[in-house]
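Listing S7. Sequence submitted for prediction.
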Amino acid sequence: MRIGITLFFFFAAYGVGNVTLPLILRNMGYSVFHTGILMGVFETAGIVGPLVANSYIEKTGKYGLSFLVMAFIMMLLPIPLVLLRGWWWTALCLVIFAVSLRGSVPLADSITTKLLGDRTNLYGVVRCAGSAGYVIMVLIVQFFSDFARPMPPLQTMLWLAIPALPFVIILLMLPGFLQTKTEPTAEQRTDKRPGIFSVFQGFSRTYWAGILMIFLGFLALSPANRLLPLYVEEYLGLHASAGLYALSAGAEIPAFLFSRRILKSIRGMTMLRLCTAAIVVRMSLYILFPGLAGTVCAQLMHFATYGLLHPAAIVFCNQNAPRGKALTSISIYQILAGGLANVLGATIGGAVIERFGYPTLFISCAILPLFALALNIILGKKS
């Protein structure tokens, strides 16, 4: 119960920071060009930084203390970010903020699975509290926003602090949280190389085959995650992207709740393959049935393409991690799926839309998971 409450407030704070950051930078006076560069700095640091930081955390074994430090950074760093101006200062703050914001997600997942122990099939049930916190906090901020003028940056940061403060307090009260640690393995104690060079060692062919399929699946999903407002407004001529985002976010909550039973019946790679096949269906719906009804159906497929896929991926990463590398295993998944796939997908997707149009983009995104499935089956037979 307390784990669920902790995740509720964590993802509530995460949602404010993640959704509003580009607007904060614009309202600080940066041009669209400089905002784009700063967001590029943030995304790059959010991909590379957590790999190095979480590898170090795994070597020291201090999961709980590290998560608490990241929580304080999330809560306090945005204040000097908006008060002290200057491009280089802003870039430095964004790098630190990205490492704590993006790095804390796989750390939260790893701590949750450790606290659950042998009951990792309950992960989805607990994680749905995080999704609820994300959706509710973003809607609250939207409700109190003035549609006629942008929210001042400092006011936005205060909204981030509202859930972040109880999040930190609950962390300190959570039984066994600060003792959430592991003893480093012999290999980790003797490995003196920088974390980035030893991060990828020791993983099996089965793990990399699964991660590759997940990455390609999330790459195919990136237009639905990042470019949906453009598709809805430009191609469909509708002004309903916010409601459609809320619809997909709501669809993942019951999936998290039911994931325990589903993952008991369908396990491992089979579940990942079924979710990847669901991505084919979802991306096809956008273009085979262009219109509000088709888009609503596609957004509801988020039930399978994230609500079931994410818990299955967390369990898969835990089960296929080398000894002492569970956090690194989850970090690789989170960074590739939530970071690199979205960055590449948005960049490539924008170029495809500009040159060939939306039909070509969504057809390509429906074909890519089929390729991922075929490749995974082939690699599975060889392993």
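Caption to Listing S7: primary sequence and predicted structure tokens for the chain studied. The CA atoms of residues 141 and 226 lie 20 Å apart. The longest helix spans residues 326-356.
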